[in-house]
Structure formats: C-alpha cells, structure tokens
Amino acid sequence: MRVIIGYSMRSGSTLLSHILGGHSQIRAYSDISSSWALLRNMLGLRHRGTVCIKPLDLIYLQHRLRPWQGFDRRIWLARDPRDSYLSTVESGYAYLFWRPGRREADIDLGLLARWRRIYRTYLDHPESWYRVHYEDLVQDPDATLSGLLEFLGLPFEKLYPFEPFDLIHGGDYKITQSNTVRRDSRHRYLQQLTPEQMAIFDRELGAEMQALGYPLGRDLPVPAVKRETARIATPHQPPVREPSPARHPAGLASSHGAGE
Question: Which keywords does this Swiss-Prot/TrEMBL entry list (predicted)?
C-alpha cells in the first residue's frame, strides 16, 4: 500500500511521518529521503508492504503533475496557519525555496500566499484525503493515531511516545532529545499575534481557515486576543518571552475522515 502525507510548511508533517514509521508494517520516507520512493511511485513501480511518503511541500505548490493521485491512501495534516507561521519564522526555514514577500504589520504576505496555494491541493478535492489535525495529534495522540491506523487498514500498535528523532536520517532539530510533543505548541498565536495581525490572517486566509475548522480572529472572545504590543519573531529578531498560552476557548474540529 502506498500512503502520502499532504501538508503545508511547519504543520508537524515530519513528526507524523516519524511516528507512523514506528509501526511494524510501515516504512516511512520524509523530505529528501522520500524523493526516490516518490519517483518509483510516479513510474508505476510497486513497493513492498506499506510505504508512507512525506515529500517536500514543493510538490503541493504546483497542480499540474499531481503525483499524489497515484497513492492508495492520502492523509492531509492540517495545522492552524497562525501557529505554522510563528513556527516558520522562528525555525529559520521561512525562505527555503521561497522569496520574501511584502510585509504588513510585520506579517510576510508572501508566506501566507504560499499556504493559500498549497491549501488548494486539499480544498479542491477534500473527499480524496483523510484529514488529521496537528492539534488533535498533540492533545490526544492515541485516539488520533488509532483512527488513522484504522483508515489505513493496519492493526493498532502503540506509537506514542515515539523514538527520538535522528538528525542523520532527517528530523526536527527541536525534538531530537524528546519522544513526546509539548502541548503548548498549540494556540501560540493567542499570545503572540496582535489584533491587527489576526485581521491580516482573516483577510488573507479566512476562507481556508474556516474550511479547515479553525476560528477567525474576529470570532474569538476579546480576552483571548493578545494586547496590541505583541510582536512576532522574524529570522533576525529573537522571540519575545511570553507566558504559556491559554487553552483555546473554542474546540477545534477533531480528525476528519475522507469526505469531511
């Protein structure tokens, strides 16, 4: 069986691929290491057993080749783009294969355009994908992974906590010493984005956020939004130290199956 993970930048896709690779029946390939496996699939060559491929997100920026169509199962990993943005600018990967765009209120509109373009891969044909939310994976990993394995038709195995990442074989440098994920990686935008910045996300990605089950900034209770003086770290500016973010007041959509 051939499985592909669809995602936008800094959505936790490397994490999900790594976790699934811990299953006894899955061989997972991520980023650069996925190139050969992806090429084999495009050439119509079969894989033995279950192969899970998490390609570079560049393939989702174009919609002509559509290599994901040749897979038996397709997983779309969604994450609130406001948190993805914060993670992107802090990680130093913001402009990997992407040029800086025009800035407004310290938000790079070009990066938001990148997310919007990638989202079309999923939103044009949501029935073709099994949607998983990063927030659910972090909050309730066992239930989320159990549903995912059921979708893949594989027997349940305890996959969380996972084996620590190995940088040599590709992984996230932030959790090389960890086998779990911190829950405060969710809803950081409530503490770090200003109302003005929230409004920019509403304007640029509002339809996409709603389609993925995320609330618009204008729909959040006023106390949930950070004060006007909040700032975003850029690749040249260290992040501001803030208290741990409060839990989101409105429940996010749980993991969705194909067609939802």
Answer: Transferase
Task: Evaluate if residue 166 carries a pLDDT over 90.
Answer: no
Lowest mean pLDDT among 9-23, 45-59, 75-89, 96-110: 45-59
Q: Minimal CA–CA distance to 187: which of 78, 76, 82? A: 82
Counting every residue written for the chain, the total comes to 260
CATH code of the domain in which 148 resides: 3.40.50.300
Q: Is 206 within the bounds of a domain? A: yes
Structural domain span for residue 140: 2-224
Q: Which helix (H) or strand (E) holds 29?
A: strand 26-30
DSSP letter at 159? -
Q: What is the CA radius of gyration of the chain?
A: 18
CA distance 233 to 220: 23
CB count in 10 Å sphere of residue 250: 10
Helix (H) / strand (E) element for 28: namely: strand 26-30
Within-domain flag for 136: yes
Alpha helix locations (H) across the chain? 13-20, 35-42, 81-91, 109-123, 134-139, 141-152, 189-192, 195-211
Query: Domains in the chain: how many in total?
Result: 1
* Alpha-carbon torsion, ordered 173, 179, 181, 182, to 10 deg: -100
pTM of the model: 0.81
